[in-house]
Structure formats: C-alpha cells, structure tokens
Amino acid sequence: RAAALIFDVDGTLAETEELHRQAFNHAFARHGLDWRWDRAVYKDLLRVTGGKERMRAYHARLGAAPPLSDMEIAELHRIKTAHYAELVEAGCCPLRTGVADLLAAARARGQRLAIATTTSHGNIDALLSRALGKRWAADFEAVVAGDDVSHKKPAPDVYIEILARLKLDAAACVAIEDSANGLIAASRAGIPVLITRSMFFGDDDFTAARVVLDDLSDLGTAKQKTEKQPHA
Ligand code: XBP
Ligand code: MG
User: Fold this and answer.
1) Closest ligand by atom to 154 CA
2) Maximum distance among all alpha carbons in the chain?
3) Which residues surround ligand 2, an ion (CB under 5 A)?
4) NCBIfam families under this entry (predicted)?
5) Percent of the chain having pLDDT more than 90?
6) Which of 201, 114, 197 is nearest to 161 (CA)?
7) Which CATH number among 1.10.150.240, 1.10.8.60, 3.40.50.1820, 1.10.10.10 corresponds to the domain 17-89?
8) Which bound ligand lies closest to the C-alpha atom of 24?
9) Residues classed as catalytic
10) What residue segments make up the domains of the chain, in order of their start?
11) How far is the CA of 178 from the centre of ligand 2 (A)?
C-alpha cells in the first residue's frame, strides 16, 4: 500500500476542464477578442498545460502579430480565473464519482494526501471549499500548484516538490492523474501512476500507467481489470 496518494486536480478530482473552457471564452468576449474555443479546439489546446501558456500557444498558432503582451495575457487570465471561481461556487463542478470515498478511505487507513496540479491555489481552493468544505486543506499535507515551480507538467517539477515536502521516496507514493501530460510528469519523478479516464483525455496514451480506470469507484475491482497491482 502506498504511503501517500498524490492527486492531480483538473480532470481527476472533478471534470473542471469544461468550466475552464467556458471561462476562457467568457474572458475572450469580455476582452473584445473574437476567439472562441469549442470542445474540439480545446481538446487539442489542452496539450499545452497552463491557462496563460495555452492562450499564448493559440495566439502563436493563429500567426497573429504582434504577440499578446504579458499584461494582456495576465488580464485575460485574471478575468478567466474570476469567472471560473464563480462557476465553481455556483456548484457547477461536483467531485467525480468515487473521489470523496477514496479520500475518506485513504485517511482512515493512514495514507498521506497531497495535491500536484498545474492550476492555481485560488482555483483549487474554490473547487475544494465548495466540494469538501472550507477546512479541506487540513486533510492535505502538501499542495503544489503550477506557479510554485519553474516548469509545469509534463515537467516533473510539481511532483518532485511534493516528494521533497512529504520526505518520501517516489516508489512509496501513487500519483492519480487523468492525462498523458500528468502521467509523464509523475513518471519522470519516478512515481507510479493510476489513471482515471476523463472527458477530454480518455483516449490519451496511458501505456506507462500502472492502472487505468474509468473512475475511482472502480478502485476496489482494479485487480480484475489488469494483471498489474494497483498500489492505491
Ligand atoms: C490542468 C491545466 C490547467 C487548466 C486551467 O492540468 O492544464 O491549465 O486547464 O488552469 P492538470 P489555469 O490537470 O494536469 O494539472 O488557467 O489556472 O492554468
Ligand atoms: Mg488533469
């Protein structure tokens, strides 16, 4: 059994990416930009992790000159983040099936909990305050967000930082992820990965994962689905 479970947020704890997508579109409209990201475009853009990085990549892809300034990107991202929080606070994004039970079971058996994500502390707090209550952070020993490190996923930085804070070896942990970028990030840090398939990343390449599940309620039956042992 793993000493610690390290959770990704977007797509893993909740299907947040559809809300992120709506929040981006809201920001574009508010800012007077004629960009609109439909689901197909967004699915492709999700290969770029980080909201600011995603907007820059899209702008570069359009070949539009001059590039958006850092200030404009920051302003768009500020509007996007505020609208995302409103959507989450309105109750648009419950935890995925099995998440609350897994968190409770892990706590009961003494497993340590952590979060390694690309999104911001503000977004994590908006989501988990609503889903788990204002004191959610008391259950997580370490929370590392994208802007806490030099390189976002698929770089291993967030996971390496979590291991340092928990003072645990990679092999003693399990990372729970929903995307190929997340799988690569955790794998580069040496951490075994359990995948819970999500809306946008369901068909990613998960060959390197220990276990691939449709959602976390399947955890108890994982052994029948794969010959490899689920460590969670
Ligand atoms: C999540 C992301 C984030 C969100 C948007 O990846 O890539 O960029 O889409 O959040 P992961 P921000 O699930 O691997 O952490 O706009 O706050 O970046
Ligand atoms: Mg994710």
Assistant:
1) 1
2) 55
3) 8, 10-11, 178-179
4) HAD-SF-IA-v3
5) 88
6) 114
7) 1.10.150.240
8) 1
9) 8, 10
10) 4-15+94-225, 17-89
11) 5
Q: Which fold has domain 4-15+94-225?
A: Rossmann fold (3.40.50)
Global pTM reads 0.92
- For residue 90, count other CB atoms closer than 10 A to its CB: 10
- Give pLDDT, residue 67: 75
pLDDT tens digit sequence for 47-81: 999 999 999 999 999 887 777 899 999 999 999 99
Q: Which atom of ligand 1 is nearest to the CA of 178?
A: 13
| Structural contact between residues 9 and 119, judged by C-beta atoms closer than 8 angstroms | yes
Q: Which DSSP string do the residues of the chain spell out, in sequence order?
A: --SEEEE--BTTTB--HHHHHHHHHHHHHHTT------HHHHHHHTTS-SHHHHHHHHHHHHT-SSPPPHHHHHHHHHHHHHHHHHHHHTT--PBPTTHHHHHHHHHHTT-EEEEE-SS-HHHHHHHHHHHH-TTGGGG-SEEE-GGGSSS-TTSSHHHHHHHHHHT--GGGEEEEESSHHHHHHHHHTT--EEEE--TTTTTS--TT-SEEESSGGGGGGHHHH-SSPP--
Q: Phi and psi for 142 in degrees, rounded to 5?
A: -145, 135
Looking at the DSSP bridge assignments, the partners of residue 5 are: 113, 174
Q: Which residues line ligand 1 (CB under 6 A)?
A: 8-11, 17, 20, 49-51, 117-120, 123, 146, 153, 179, 181-182
